[in-house]
Specification:
Length: 653
């Protein structure tokens, strides 16, 4: 049992691991035990960019090297450990930007189709956000229809991907001081695709071989994600599907039902999830399910698509990244419907032990052994119903090897930037001023973004939970997205009453007054741009400096796994935010590169990286940084409250 507990702190996960072992089903936790990571690759010291390699460069022995010894620690082409480490890091950042960027491009083109009336079943749901975006981008509103305005906006956003000159439009949303810094450093992205392409060229064998210049490029390509592809995707999704607002739902494998057709949507494309949610509630699909002996259709989410459906429809979440195969292990899942990103190929192998159908839906992401049913947004409802019909037909094949864990937890999600603005200031005076004031008066120490994936190299959900609890205990308000948000929700931290139980007195008093949890769910990993907007709003409301780097804020990814996490962390650092990662660090084999990112970056960008695998120690690094910023702002000491009489008030005039 102790060995099982080391794999996860979540009881539903542990129960399904036991069942998987009994059923002979292989899952990610078992593969992580039998497939050990390459120690040289983990440190960033393996170069496979050309056929003269792969070259594995050994780290120094811990003593002063002679020139001759150092000359031996290079690749066949002469590439130094610094060059190899930096190139590997840039490629990770470029891949993350490409992934989010490709998603953003699909959403921008989809937005154009919706505006033109070429995507039946979809419409513009958030008129206010549409018009605000038009004002931001200089699009004429006048007496034009929403669709006419939307077409102009969509055309501008589509061009952001292929733009070759100038700057990304959304860079203007950042504080002015931050914009000036990016221009001075030469890291303001021109477009999205061009920065990815240049990164791949720079890291080709024999091109850019100055590690500092390479890391400058990593900043540039990552900013093209945070203030480009990701921000475009979030804005468009809110306009089409509605800007999220707080709602109550549930999370964990216990949301599956033993008497209904269970379908899980997994991936990152919300247009599929949106229409699946609509189709699953249609009378004809429900009647069809009942004709097969089921009481209805139970739709649940997994990973980032789960966050999208949760925020807008209240659809429950079955689990985060490492639980995707375990949903199949329950024996109660008729279909796992997937599109792009974070989909384990092992799903198909796990499904061989059960009746579950793994259905791929995107032309960019097929899996050998899965059933491919392409989702077409121009006939979205029909596509969604065909997928659901296949799942319903599979209900009769469920069998008796079913065990659904009882664990499920209530949670409140849907805290978009706009919602936080409204909750703090009200309808007519929406503002971040109450947040700033409570940071200044010390009730809230600062704000932390804890985001990212799960990683089987560390105990599932444990890093997140230990870090988040330590932060809120020390009066730090926590913002979360993606799989880390789900980990906190499963532990009950996304309910208002969690403030009384887990938060410090100051943070708890603010949460009680506003009626919010101490940990706020802000969406999927693509929605980290909401956190950038929140930080910018804090700057613009005043009292906490004139740049994001002045704010008492920090960020972390305690259980990161994907290249997208590197990109997210890099654009956070480049935006002026101290960012600490757990698990491992991909440049640790090069002291020069690591020191540059962990120290010199702060002098250049006002934000820097840190690495700390212990989540509690990492939390205290964040708290120390927050305290440093509070001291620089002169708000580190409690101020005595003075009751002014009339004479004292007259002196102020």
């Amino acid at each position: 049992m102790a060995e099982k507990e080391a794999k996860s702190i979540d009881q539903a996960t542990l129960e399904m691991l036991e069942k998987a072992a009994q059923d002979g089903a292989r899952v990610v936790f078992e593969r992580a035990e039998t497939t050990r990571p390459c120690p040289i690759g983990a440190d960033g010291m393996c170069c496979s960019l050309c056929a003269m390699g792969p070259c594995r460069v050994q780290p120094p022995k811990g003593k002063e090297e002679t020139l001759e010894e150092r000359r031996k620690r290079v690749g066949v082409c002469g590439a130094t450990p610094e060059t190899i480490s930096a190139r590997n890091f840039v490629r990770k950042a470029a891949a993350g930007t490409a992934s989010h960027g490709d998603h953003g491009r699909v959403m921008a083109k989809f937005f154009l189709a919706v505006a033109k009336g070429e995507a039946p079943g979809y419409e513009i749901k958030d008129e206010q956000k549409l018009l605000q975006l038009a004002l931001d981008l200089g699009v004429t509103i006048g007496d034009r229809s929403n669709e006419e305005v939307a077409i102009d906006i969509a055309n501008l956003l589509v061009k952001e991907f292929g733009k070759q000159e100038g700057e990304l439009l959304f860079l203007k949303r950042a504080p002015l001081k931050r914009q000036e810094l990016w221009r001075k450093q030469g890291v303001a992205p021109r477009g999205i695709d061009i920065e990815v392409a240049e990164s791949m060229h720079r890291t080709h064998m024999g091109t850019d071989q100055d590690y500092q210049d390479l890391l400058k490029n990593a900043v540039k390509v990552s900013l093209a994600d945070g203030w480009g592809g990701s921000m475009i995707a979030t804005e468009v999704q809110d306009i089409i599907f509605g800007t999220p607002a707080p709602l109550l739902s549930q999370i964990n494998l216990g949301v599956l039902k033993d008497d209904e057709v269970n379908i899980i949507i997994h991936g990152h494309e919300p247009q599929l999830a949106e229409m699946m949610a609509v189709a699953a509630q249609s009378p004809d699909m429900i009647a069809y399910a009942k004709s097969k002996g089921a009481k209805g259709i139970n739709l649940a989410g997994m990973c980032c698509t789960a966050n999208e459906m949760l925020m807008r429809h209240g659809v429950p979440i079955a689990g985060n990244f490492l639980q995707q195969e375990l949903a199949i292990v329950t024996g109660a899942l008729e279909a796992m419907v997937v599109d792009v990103q974070c989909i384990m190929q092992g799903l198909v192998d796990t499904a061989r032990c059960y009746h579950t159908k793994v259905i791929t839906t995107d032309p960019r992401a097929k899996i050998q052994g899965a059933t491919h049913m392409e989702f077409h947004e121009h006939e979205a409802l029909e596509s969604a119903k065909a997928i659901i019909k296949m799942a319903v037909d599979n209900f009769v094949n469920r069998g008796k090897n079913v065990r659904i864990p009882k664990q499920k937890t209530d949670m409140i999600a849907g805290f978009s930037h706009e919602t936080i603005n409204y909750l703090l200031g009200g309808l007519f005076r929406a503002s971040y001023r109450p947040l700033n004031d409570n940071i200044i008066n010390g009730r809230i120490r600062g704000v932390a973004a804890v985001v990212g994936c799960n990683n089987p190299r560390v105990t599932h959900d444990s890093g997140n939970l230990a870090m988040v609890k330590e932060l809120i205990k020390n009066d730090v308000l926590v913002l979360q997205t993606g799989c880390m948000a789900m980990a906190s929700a499963k532990a009950g931290l996304m309910l208002p009453e969690a403030a009384v139980q887990f938060a410090g007195d100051g943070l708890a008093s603010v949460c009680e007054a506003v009626g919010i949890p101490p940990v706020l769910h802000m969406g999927a990993c693509i929605d980290n741009s909401r956190i950038l907007m929140s930080a910018t709003a804090m700057v613009k409301d005043g009292g906490l400096g004139d740049d994001i780097s002045d704010l008492p804020v920090a960020a972390a990814a305690p259980e990161w796994m994907s290249e997208k996490a590197i990109t997210i962390g890099q654009y956070a650092v480049a935006s002026g935010i101290f960012t600490v990662f757990g698990v491992n660090w991909p440049t640790i084999g090069s002291k020069e590169v690591t020191d540059f990112m962990f120290k010199d970056f702060e002098e250049i960008y006002g934000g820097m990286w840190a690495f700390e695998p212990d989540p509690v120690k990492a939390a205290h690094l964040m708290i120390a940084h927050i305290d440093k910023k509070r001291k620089a702002l002169g708000i580190d000491k409690a101020r005595e409250r003075v009751l002014y009489d009339m004479a004292m008030r007259r002196e102020l005039v």
